[in-house]
């Protein structure tokens, strides 16, 4: 028997991982080796770099893995899912603003919001279908209603919301038609659409909040460490972000005299988003780390600056059209950064075995594995 | 069929899925202490299930060039070189000894056990494990599938119907073990874009046959059978190994009270699960789903209330 080569514990993380059709690429750092020296004392030490952690303090983690490779697989989703998180939020918030504008007699705000609603929805459906492995089978979603699948629930939420948003938009278009057309041979149809606008817009507004909120469950209901661990606060981050982005769009497109409610909504949404995001990072523990690193870290920092600046602009610059436009654009950009940042952080957390192994190992070492307790033995 | 333990806790998965009188739950007991890393399971699986080629690449990590479970690799033999005495540790029950296990006399004529001087013995040991889909009692992939493509069979296993899957990829992100994946290639292969994984050879089971990998395993490292019987056998095996002083032996996935309700394919390991690339304490993500929907509901209502408040007292 011959001696094994000296470099038998090979750190793969610096090597090229198998190419695209076999396994997602891996993003471990070179310092992370396949070893957790503390327990066995017989393997390379897995040392963790401290980088850009900011205000989140996490203890150094040593852990073992299979040659530094990922344990869970990252979602095989492209950036169109991150973009969908944004456009879906804009659509949902816009539908609510449109209903409010309609009820309070703000036609300019209503028009912008209805265009935002249908535009957001159209882009969303496009992104969703494009991301399927078999786009031609999109309708297979309609085979079942499955409460355990947030994607199924979301599909049905969109199916319920979409037609009413579409009807409200059609009514808006009907109202925009030149007078000769409105009175011409299509007059009965135009009149019908106009009358349906308000009720359809109301239903569209009332069915909109789940469109904004379910996407948080969509991400959290996975084994992706930085998405699942965010499940308490992520719905509030996403709903706040949706409110800020849709109100931002309304501020961009609406004269300041009619945009008052949009400014209020923008400030409220931005504050909820910023506060919920802060609380979320605290409750995520180690899994908040990817929110501070790499591309996700840059996006989340940009998101905070843009959202805060947009909110301040909406608060103090409401009388100025120029400030409103810039603030609204900043709020939309901030929301976009939030969605992409959360998306990227989740993907990064799945590619690094640390975020899967360390929390699980720690609860095992504490003697607190996740085990079922019958209802009569709970709390003891 | 929503029962009390449908999302978490011990349950008979086939009965919970609605089968009236299902056959006994079927699964694998993979005993890594007798795996010799021959990869016969990988080959048999590919041959029977017509799984296309995986990307072959010299990773430089031990002898493992099939590198992971994925859409094109439904059995994967992990090779781990661990520092420590060859053959694992030996000692009396209840104590951890660093002595190498003595070479075994195989009964070969005129040969006897080989005599190897201590200094020629390797100062590391091999761990080999044939990994596979765990066929969880609470299968996150199945729970989150929006098309119903993933379903629970009468044998309690989890199978993808590839003519229904639309490739949304949700199951990929949901699996706590990183097993299921969307097929990306090679060009011309069937079912590209579709989620693929071990079916526990559903087509063989319905004909009363053993899965291909278990059939091909030369050392009975992969044992197929009724899960109840396999769990009993696994308990005996781990007790026997402890009796021999191999105190590193432990079972993984056999506990119906664990985070995924126990797995239909479970393992005897000789080191911590993460050494093999397995999550040490996996939990099905849908355990928390009621809470997630609850929080999302509150956030949605808050968003609606916020919109209403924004318009209050501001009639234009």
Automatic annotation (TrEMBL), chain A:
<feature type="compositionally biased region" description="Polar residues">
    <location>
        <begin position="10"/>
        <end position="19"/>
    </location>
</feature>
<keyword id="KW-1003">Cell membrane</keyword>
<comment type="similarity">
    <text>Belongs to the NrfD family.</text>
</comment>
<feature type="compositionally biased region" description="Basic and acidic residues">
    <location>
        <begin position="40"/>
        <end position="53"/>
    </location>
</feature>
<feature type="region of interest" description="Disordered">
    <location>
        <begin position="1"/>
        <end position="55"/>
    </location>
</feature>
<dbReference type="InterPro" id="IPR005614">
    <property type="entry name" value="NrfD-like"/>
</dbReference>
<keyword id="KW-1133">Transmembrane helix</keyword>
<keyword id="KW-0472">Membrane</keyword>
<dbReference type="InterPro" id="IPR052049">
    <property type="entry name" value="Electron_transfer_protein"/>
</dbReference>
<dbReference type="GO" id="GO:0005886">
    <property type="term" value="C:plasma membrane"/>
</dbReference>
<protein>
    <submittedName>
        <fullName>Polysulfide reductase</fullName>
    </submittedName>
</protein>
<keyword id="KW-0812">Transmembrane</keyword>
<feature type="region of interest" description="Disordered">
    <location>
        <begin position="358"/>
        <end position="380"/>
    </location>
</feature>
<dbReference type="Pfam" id="PF03916">
    <property type="entry name" value="NrfD"/>
</dbReference>
<feature type="compositionally biased region" description="Basic and acidic residues">
    <location>
        <begin position="360"/>
        <end position="380"/>
    </location>
</feature>
From TrEMBL, chain B:
<keyword id="KW-0408">Iron</keyword>
<keyword id="KW-0472">Membrane</keyword>
<feature type="domain" description="4Fe-4S ferredoxin-type">
    <location>
        <begin position="26"/>
        <end position="54"/>
    </location>
</feature>
<feature type="domain" description="4Fe-4S ferredoxin-type">
    <location>
        <begin position="156"/>
        <end position="185"/>
    </location>
</feature>
<dbReference type="InterPro" id="IPR051555">
    <property type="entry name" value="FDH_Electron_Transfer_Unit"/>
</dbReference>
<protein>
    <submittedName>
        <fullName>4Fe-4S dicluster domain-containing protein</fullName>
    </submittedName>
</protein>
<dbReference type="GO" id="GO:0046872">
    <property type="term" value="F:metal ion binding"/>
</dbReference>
<feature type="binding site">
    <location>
        <position position="213"/>
    </location>
    <ligand>
        <name>[4Fe-4S] cluster 2</name>
    </ligand>
</feature>
<dbReference type="InterPro" id="IPR017896">
    <property type="entry name" value="4Fe4S_Fe-S-bd"/>
</dbReference>
<keyword id="KW-0479">Metal-binding</keyword>
<keyword id="KW-0812">Transmembrane</keyword>
<dbReference type="Pfam" id="PF13247">
    <property type="entry name" value="Fer4_11"/>
</dbReference>
<dbReference type="Pfam" id="PF12800">
    <property type="entry name" value="Fer4_4"/>
</dbReference>
<feature type="binding site">
    <location>
        <position position="168"/>
    </location>
    <ligand>
        <name>[4Fe-4S] cluster 4</name>
    </ligand>
</feature>
<feature type="binding site">
    <location>
        <position position="45"/>
    </location>
    <ligand>
        <name>[4Fe-4S] cluster 2</name>
    </ligand>
</feature>
<dbReference type="GO" id="GO:0045333">
    <property type="term" value="P:cellular respiration"/>
</dbReference>
<feature type="binding site">
    <location>
        <position position="165"/>
    </location>
    <ligand>
        <name>[4Fe-4S] cluster 4</name>
    </ligand>
</feature>
<keyword id="KW-1133">Transmembrane helix</keyword>
<dbReference type="GO" id="GO:0051539">
    <property type="term" value="F:4 iron, 4 sulfur cluster binding"/>
</dbReference>
<feature type="binding site">
    <location>
        <position position="141"/>
    </location>
    <ligand>
        <name>[4Fe-4S] cluster 3</name>
    </ligand>
</feature>
<feature type="transmembrane region" description="Helical">
    <location>
        <begin position="292"/>
        <end position="313"/>
    </location>
</feature>
<feature type="binding site">
    <location>
        <position position="35"/>
    </location>
    <ligand>
        <name>[4Fe-4S] cluster 1</name>
    </ligand>
</feature>
């Amino acid at each position: 028997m011959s001696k094994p080569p000296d470099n038998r514990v090979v750190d793969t993380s610096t090597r090229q991982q198998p190419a695209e059709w076999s396994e997602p690429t891996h993003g471990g750092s070179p310092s992370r080796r396949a070893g957790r020296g503390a327990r066995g004392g017989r393997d390379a030490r897995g040392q963790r770099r401290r980088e850009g952690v900011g205000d989140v303090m996490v203890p150094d983690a040593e852990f073992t893995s299979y040659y530094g490779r990922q344990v869970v697989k990252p979602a095989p989703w492209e950036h169109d899912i991150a973009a969908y998180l944004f456009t879906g939020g804009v659509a949902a918030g816009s539908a609510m603003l449109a209903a409010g504008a309609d009820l309070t007699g703000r036609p300019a705000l209503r028009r912008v919001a209805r265009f935002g609603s249908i535009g957001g929805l159209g882009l969303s459906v496009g992104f969703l279908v494009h991301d399927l492995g078999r786009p031609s089978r999109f309708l297979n979603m309609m085979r079942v209603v499955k409460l355990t699948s947030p994607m199924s629930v979301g599909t049905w939420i969109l199916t319920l919301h979409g037609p009413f948003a579409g009807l409200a938009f059609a009514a808006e278009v009907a109202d925009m038609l030149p007078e000769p057309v409105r009175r011409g041979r299509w007059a009965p149809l135009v009149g019908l659409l106009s009358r349906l606008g308000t009720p359809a817009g109301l239903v569209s507004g009332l069915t909109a909040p789940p469109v904004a909120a379910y996407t948080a469950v969509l991400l959290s209901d996975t084994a992706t460490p930085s998405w699942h661990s965010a499940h308490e606060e992520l719905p509030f981050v996403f709903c706040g972000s949706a409110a800020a982005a849709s109100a931002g769009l309304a501020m961009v497109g609406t004269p300041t005299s009619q945009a008052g409610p949009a400014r209020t909504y923008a400030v409220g949404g931005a504050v909820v988003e910023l506060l919920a995001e802060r609380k979320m990072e605290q409750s995520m523990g180690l899994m908040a780390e990817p929110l501070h690193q790499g591309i996700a870290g840059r996006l989340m920092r940009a998101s905070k600056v843009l959202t805060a600046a947009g909110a301040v602009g909406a608060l103090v610059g409401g009388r100025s059209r120029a400030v409103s436009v810039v603030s609204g654009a900043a709020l939309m950009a901030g929301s976009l950064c939030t969605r992409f940042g959360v998306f990227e952080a989740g993907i990064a957390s799945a590619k690094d075995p640390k975020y899967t192994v360390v929390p699980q190992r720690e609860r095992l070492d504490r003697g607190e594995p996740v085990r079922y307790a019958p209802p009569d033995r709970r709390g003891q | 069929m929503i029962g009390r333990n449908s999302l978490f806790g011990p349950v008979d998965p086939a009965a919970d899925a609605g089968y009236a009188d299902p056959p006994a739950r079927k699964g694998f007991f993979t005993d890594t202490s007798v795996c010799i890393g021959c990869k016969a399971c990988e080959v048999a699986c590919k041959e029977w299930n017509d799984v296309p080629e995986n990307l072959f690449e010299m990773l430089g990590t031990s002898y493992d060039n099939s590198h992971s479970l994925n859409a094109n690799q439904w059995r994967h033999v992990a090779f781990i070189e661990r520092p420590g005495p060859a053959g694992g540790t030996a000692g009396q029950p209840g104590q951890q000894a660093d002595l190498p296990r003595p070479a075994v006399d195989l009964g070969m004529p005129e040969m006897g056990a080989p005599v190897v001087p201590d200094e020629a013995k390797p100062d590391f040991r091999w761990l080999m494990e044939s990994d596979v889909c765990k066929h969880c009692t609470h299968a996150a992939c199945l729970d989150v599938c929006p098309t119903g493509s993933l379903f629970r069979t009468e044998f309690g296993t989890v199978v993808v119907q590839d003519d229904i899957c639309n490739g949304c990829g949700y199951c990929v992100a949901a699996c706590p073990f990183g097993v299921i994946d969307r097929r990306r290639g090679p060009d011309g292969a069937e079912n590209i874009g579709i989620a693929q994984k071990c079916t526990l050879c559903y087509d063989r089971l319905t004909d009363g046959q053993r899965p291909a990998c278990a059939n091909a395993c030369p050392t009975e490292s992969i044992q197929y059978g009724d899960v109840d019987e396999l769990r009993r056998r696994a308990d005996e095996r781990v007790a026997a190994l402890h009796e021999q002083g191999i105190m590193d032996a432990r079972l993984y996935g056999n506990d119906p009270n664990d985070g995924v309700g126990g797995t239909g394919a479970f393992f005897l390991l000789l080191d911590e699960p993460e050494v093999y690339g397995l999550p040490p304490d996996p939990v099905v993500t849908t355990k928390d789903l009621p809470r997630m929907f609850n929080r999302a509901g509150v956030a949605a209502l808050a968003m609606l209330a916020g919109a209403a408040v924004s318009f209050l007292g501001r009639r234009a």
